[in-house]
Amino acid sequence: xxxxxxxxxxxxxxxxxxxxxxxxxxxxxxxxxxxxxxxxxxxxxxxxxxxxxxxxxxxxxxxxxxxxxxxxxxxxxxxxxxxxxxxxx
Length: 89
What we know:
Elements: E1 2-5, E2 17-24, E3 28-33, E4 36-42, E5 49-54, E6 59-66, E7 69-77
Antiparallel strand pairs: 1-2, 2-5, 3-4, 3-6, 6-7
């Protein structure tokens, strides 16, 4: 299991640090932002990990490792603005 949060939509915080957390039963978790590693950390039992990541739009990915092998990943991506489309009848 691997859960990473918060969402990755902070248009008013570009360049400011956002705390990203991971909860997992993996041995280690590595966090990536737009293809650049933010660090790989050992997961404490019944705990969580956190990184201070400067916000930049794009792709935030967490990779979970067991016995040194990547076994799963989770991705959060920046989305565009919500649009409401009304169909004329």
